[in-house]
Amino acid sequence: MKLFLIFWMTFLLKDCNVSEAQGLQQLSYANADIGQKLIRSTVTTEPPPPTTRKTSFFGGIRNYFVRKSTEAPIVTSTEPNVVRAITPLPGSSSSTTTSGRMVPRNPAGNAPPIMSQTSNIVVPRVTPSTSSTTTTTTSRPKPPQEDFPPLGPPRRQNSVSSTTPSTTTLHSVWSTPPRNGNPPNVQFIPQQPSPSNVPQPSTFNIPKIEIASNSELEVLTEELFNKEASSLFEKIAIDYQGRTQSSALTDEAPRPLLTVNETDLESINSIKLIRKLYNNYELDTMTNEYVTPLEKKEENDFVDAIMATSVMRHAMTFLQQKGKVTPDPKTHRDLLKRLWFSLYSRGRGRIGSSAFEHVFLSETKNGSITGLHNWVYFHDEEEAGRADYKGWLKKVELGRKGAIVKYRFSHNNINKPVNAMFIGTSPELEVALYTVCFEVRPDKECPISLGGNKLLIRTHTFRYRGKVLIGSAFPEI
Fold first, then answer.
1. Residue 430's closest CA among 468, 385, 470, 394?
2. In this model, does residue 14 exceed pLDDT 80?
3. How confident is the model at residue 4, as a pLDDT?
4. Which of 224, 332, 405, 436 could make an SS bond with 395 (beta carbons 3.0 to 4.6 A apart)?
5. Contact predicate 274/302, CB 8 Å
6. What pLDDT score does 297 carry?
């Protein structure tokens, strides 16, 4: 019996003869490569007082039963106050000793005790202090600690340890290069300020390329003039009378400027159709225009009539070559309708004007007369007693097909000191000349050639509700 007790005491004393320092030393992994794959949390602790005192007999028995109780399997819990014990990574010699265990967390917030991988001694986790001695402990499986914090937004974690870098630290590291060099595969390239003496692209003087050259326009307009088949110039009696000036107040032409037979006017289809449009418009631009279905039909009849002439077809072929219209004849017609018959406002929001009314008829605005650049309308107004020719300033004969006159006149007793218009030409020729010049030379001088005479046409742009329309068009001499 005494031998059995001596053997039992010797076994217990041998098993319990482990100091606390030896228990802490056995926390390291046998394989250093596996240990590097875990995050190490370094805290400073007070070194335990060295002791060589062996555990007493009854203390050894107490530790033995405590060790046995901690080896019992713990049921996995989902409560927030428990954490999973460390499971050795694959490849470790003791990878099956603590797999699937849960260690309760101290309610006070301290981390739970850690079981040694090679011993059954329970090692309590120490509280960090300011001592210079450091002791390495493990809290939970984490990715390996890098030399530099991650560059970018911090990863979301279930809990924050004392060694987890804050969001402010991560952002400051991202925005500020490290002092001791850049981390691998990361380059911090400072922004180079642009030189102030380098000119911007907008400052370069790039010459604007015209859609059509002057020679092309002169050749085209001469061809249009040669195709003119509806001129009444030889059947019109023109009485220029006295020459005047724009500042003059006297009447240098008591007689009418134009005299033409009514039958001759009605013999030209486009002239007959354009005269039907004269009563469709209000003279004052401050009066709203209302287009009735009959007036719309009269507009369409006039456009269809001039589109059927060789003059307009040749002009549209030229605009097609310049990319202004497509080969579809509908786009040709739509262009004329939009440019000439779209109504717009010249003031106070009143929709009381259009390109056709301004050029081929006349308008009044704020007590002034504007427009009136067509000889057919001027003839009709002279016969009606509303237009009074005062004399000419300049005139150009265009052979046997027409003429251009710059003159002074009054309409409804409102004086207009300077005005210009063709005489004897057909409506289709005038519409063709004005449309081509507006499309290729808007708001500029457009060089033309008629009967060998070098002339100019001036057009003005009127923008209204996203549309680019003709505000005015007339010959210049």
1. 470
2. no
3. 72
4. 405
5. yes
6. 97
Domain around 126: 21-46+83-150
Distance CA 214, CA 39 (A): 82
Closest CA to 65 of 23, 101, 15, 102: 15
Are residues 225 and 139 part of one domain? no
Inside any domain, residue 296: yes
pLDDT tens digits for 78-99?
Answer: 444 444 444 444 444 444 444 4
Same domain (yes/no): 141, 230: no
Model confidence pLDDT, tens digit, residues 112-134: 444 444 444 444 444 444 444 44
Let me know whether 145 and 229 are in one domain.
no
Say how far apart CA 471 and CA 464 lie, in whole Å: 10
Asked if 141 and 220 sit in the same domain, the reply is: no
Of 127, 150, 173, the domain-final residue: 150
DSSP at 58: H
Q: Amino acid identity of 450? A: L
Same domain, 111 and 226: no
Nearest-10 Cα torsion for 175, 142, 102, 68: -140
**Using CA of residue 234, residue 236, residue 237, residue 239, what is the dihedral sign?**
negative
Residue 42's nearest CA partner among 161, 122, 152 is 161
Quote the pTM value. 0.59
Pair 474, 457: CB distance under 8 Å = yes
437 and 301 in a common domain: yes
Number of domains the chain contains: 2
Across the strands, what pairs with 238? 258
Query: Residue 239 pLDDT more than 50?
Result: yes
Q: How many CB atoms lie within 10 A of CB 306?
A: 24
State what percent of residues in the chain have pLDDT above 70: 57
Per-residue confidence (pLDDT) for residue 419, from 0 to 100: 97
Amino acid 208: pLDDT: 60
Question: Residue 163 domain-assigned?
Answer: no
> Interior CA angle at 314 toward 213 and 335, to 5°?
85
Of 411, 405, 378, the closest CA to residue 392 belongs to: 405
**Whether residues 457 and 378 fall in one domain:** yes
Burial (CB count <10 Å: 0-12, 13-18, 19+), residue 103? middle
Residues classed as catalytic: 358, 373, 416
